[in-house]
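This week, think about what follows.
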Amino acid sequence: MAYAGIDIGTSGCKMTIYNRKGEILSSSGRTYQETGDDGYRELDANMVWAYTKEVIREASGNSPEPVQCIAVASLGESIICLDENNTVLANSMLTGDKRGIDECSIIEKKFSKEEVMDITGLPLSEMYALPKFIWLQNNSAVFKNTRHIFFYEDYIGYLLTGKRMVSFSLAARSMAFDIRTKQWSQRLLTLAGLDRALFSAPVLSGTILGPVLPDIAEELGLPPGTLIAAGGHDQGCAGLGSGMTTFAEGEDGQGTCEVMQFILPKLTSSPYMIEKGIPCAPYVLPDIFLAQIELTTCGILMNWFKDNIFANIRDFCGTSGIDFFSYMDTLAAERHPGSIMLLPSFGSCGNPDICYDAVGTICGLTIHTQPIELYQAVKEGMAYQMFMAYETLSELNINPDVIRVTGGGAASDYTLQLRADIFNIPMEVINSTQAGTLGAAILAASAVQLNMKITDIVKDMVQVKKCFKPRSQYHRLYMERYDSYKQLYNDVGVKRYFAP
């Protein structure tokens, strides 16, 4: 039998079907566009469902083995409101949507930052759902006709099965979920005038929702009785898909943004975590919590440089049939640590000083600067920034033996060796390029393989493909440059000097 993971993201969805060894049997994906301007970022839930059905139909139709169980990994924070007829009432606000900034002060009048962190595991921020709930309540009529509120994981699960269940890991992205009682916090939801009955029942990842509805199964070409299990937040699923089950392992997901995560020794909520913007997030494994740090401009920054600064090289690579990033990586790998410094906060900045109105900095340019030096500066700047964030985790007794890199960055040997040299920690790549769908598929497998521990399923389905070990001589060189990077960061900062 086979197991499938669906990954619902900000810019696309995909479904991948795996066998019991973690080998890909079939895969299908679609991309879609967000909408909005003037600080609004929205996603059409009807469009997402339509594309999700397409990838299910295509992947299941091409699989040599029937799918026994499916789980969904999805983006966090964004909600879907349905009326009594299951009609979508509004587009979903995405994480970077500016609505909710002022509403954080409404929350803080009733709950201190320490109370919010203690209940939800989250530093108070507009990126989460609760401030956006309050905005919707005060600025729209959406909730007047709302009968159900979903996140994308339980929305897809509901449309497939008719059952309303959401994983702890995704419910926790709302900033209205009590991570200690594992229930919705009515005290927090009252700030937005909402009742917790509007939300799906919180359950452990891997809990079976039920079989796919017969008419939906027929439409999508799924075997009768195909089961759906609770998945989780995409970052948690990617962590599981990387094989992260112990304190000794970390996961680094490099995509549009970059999120690095580690298992905490215990459920932790402290003023230090609030100051540094570090959440205590429920994992997709029982009673385990994660510390997460983020670089908000990762793949999106690389693409900006490719299209705006290196357009001539991009076009040359395109006409020559060469992959742009592979070409530039090969040139950069031959060089020693660069002399140009780049702060990668082009529009926003993640840990350790979270700012959603940041600016980047390039320092050290001359009329002799070559494009490859600037490319190298981007890669090194992102690595230095993540290392600066990583250093804040030492207070939480996080000291992994290895970090597994997933997402687009895992395809770059140069990036992996650079990170190993700077962090002085081995960086590993796993057998699947889709850690999110693999993690969801592992949860699906655990839902039906009741005689196996999920850690044993992980061992069967996740294999390390390659390891990049730190080089001591390069680590010393990079640490000298890192001292200069920190000085630039502290002297210049990331906030705007002038109004745009």
User: Anything to note?
Assistant: The mean pLDDT is 95.
